[in-house]
Every structure is written in C-alpha cells, then in structure tokens.
C-alpha cells in the first residue's frame, strides 16, 4: 500500500501541471485581460490610474501624451502614451513571453507563493481564507445532511422495494432531482424569507448585524437560522442522487448468495442487513464522501451564494474571472486542483479501510 500511495502522489505533480498548463494556454486567447480591464476603467474615468499605475507623475504623462496613438493591441488605449502601456504590462508581468510567465508562476506555486490580487491589494491566500467560511458552511452541512437522510432512506427503499413507500418516495426524489437548485432557492426565499408569505428566515447574509453582541447560544442559533435556507437549496440534488445510489447498492447486495445463506442460518433481518450487507453495500457510498464534499464545496455554489448574498468562494471565482484577476484564478485553481487530486487518493484509502479485501498495492497504476 505504501508503494501505491507514493505512485499516486508522484502522479499528482504531472497531472496538476497539465491542468494549469491547459488553463493558462486558454487564457492567452481570451480577450479582455488585466491591461484591457485597467484601460476600460481609465476610459470610463475615475481614479483607477492613480491606484494602479502609481500616482500623479504618471497621470501627468498621460495628459501630456494624450495625442499619442497608444498601443493598437489594446482596446481603449487610444490617447495613452506607449510608455504607460508598457508600464502596465510590466506591472502585470506581460512584458515576458507566455512560457516564461507560466514557468515562473508554477515555480512560485510549488512554493505556495500565490501572489496578490491584481485589483484588491490583498494576497490570494488571505482572500481565499476570508471567503472560505461561507463555502465550508454550505459544503459541510449540505454533505452531512444529504448522507444522514439519504442513507437511511435508501436502505428503507431497498428493503421495501416495489412497495407503495418505495413508489411515492421515488416520485419525490425524481421531483427533487429535477428542480434546479437556484429555482428551489428562489422558492424558499419567496415562501419563508418575506417574499410573499412568511417572514421566518433572514433574506441574506451568514449572521445578523448584532452577532458579536449575542451570547454563545444566541450565536449558534443565529448561525443556524441564517444557513437553513442556503443549505436546503444546495442539498436537494445531492440528496436525490445519494438516495438512489444507496438503494441500488443495497439491492445488488441483497440478491447475492451470501445473504440467502445468512438468512437460511436463521439470522434476523437486521443482523443480515447491518451485519453483512451494510459493509459491502455502503462501500461505494461512503468511499465517495470526499468527492461529494469537494464537489459541493467547490462547485455549484455560485448561484446559491448570489441569491442569498453570501460572500464565498463561488462568487470570488466568478468575480475574478470577470475581472481577469489571474493571480486569484490560477492560485485558487492550483489549490483546488491539488485538493481534488488528494481527495481521489483519500477515496481509494477509504475503500481499503471499509473493505480490507481490496488491495491497491497489486495495481500497476
């Protein structure tokens, strides 16, 4: 097993390198880079020039060079001196060839130096840590609730396969799976957040304005009060998928010969179900927990965070992509890609932990 773990860890490096290389190459063909973003803001007026280009002296250069043609490579550069455009390129690192920029970026990332945001004057690490509590809240609670509800329900549906209980719960699950998360979120707001009916839950945010003044019990209650609707909205699709996965896993195991043999020996149904079937049936469900958590934690949260005005990683990624904030885009991509690859290894180790008969050490890759 140790050799297998080392091989998997060694594969993470080229895999992560390939992910970063593909995304870096794609951004080279996307119009509207950081320089264009600055020029667009300058063209619209404001003091962006002083904040980004370094103050009043450069501002005088712009005024003096207003008659210059600028750099035709950039939209909005007309009337700006080429020296100013070159200064912007140097500030953002675009004065170097793409392959040099990529290698420098990867060297920094291998040392976990992710730099600073282009437009926020804050390090990428601090920015991610600032937004992470919201995403942890949605990801962790949504995953735990999905498992706590889906596993017992899936087992019950497998045991009573074909009954009326199985039929009507399957109907509810199909409906839940068909409803988009953002539509369900809007429905919850309309019904329970003062939209048109009940004012039970808050409309936005993760805590109340007076959160710091509350007691410990009050803070816990306020926190749970705020996360109820966002968690429900982000859980609905995972709940449906896990329930059907659990049911099908148990159905496959219940029909096997060892279950028939155990029943023939006189074991009670619960002994057979939870003493023999459970470990084998839950292998694929439990081993997939890391992947499910990562998918809920990093993906699909943008719309939920936007609807409920939660400032998390989903909105951070979207805003960084719109602003072409490359340090935030690539820094978070590197970290999340590394976490995703490590979670794949953790999933394999969980397979072995749940069922020791599985031996990945005999695999070649």
From TrEMBL:
Membrane-spanning residues: 9-30, 134-155, 167-193, 223-246, 281-308, 328-354
InterPro entries: MetI-like (IPR000515), MetI-like_sf (IPR035906)
Membrane topology: Multi-pass membrane protein
SUPFAM superfamilies listed in its UniProt record: MetI-like
GO cellular component, one term: plasma membrane
Subcellular location: Cell inner membrane; Cell membrane
GO biological process: microcin transport; transmembrane transport
Main location group: membrane
Keyword entries, A-Z: Cell inner membrane, Cell membrane, Membrane, Transmembrane, Transmembrane helix, Transport
Pfam family, one: BPD_transp_1
Domain (ABC transmembrane type-1): residue spans on this chain: 132-351
Record family assignment: Belongs to the binding-protein-dependent transport system permease family.
Protein name: ABC peptide transporter
Organism: Dinoroseobacter shibae (strain DSM 16493 / NCIMB 14021 / DFL 12)
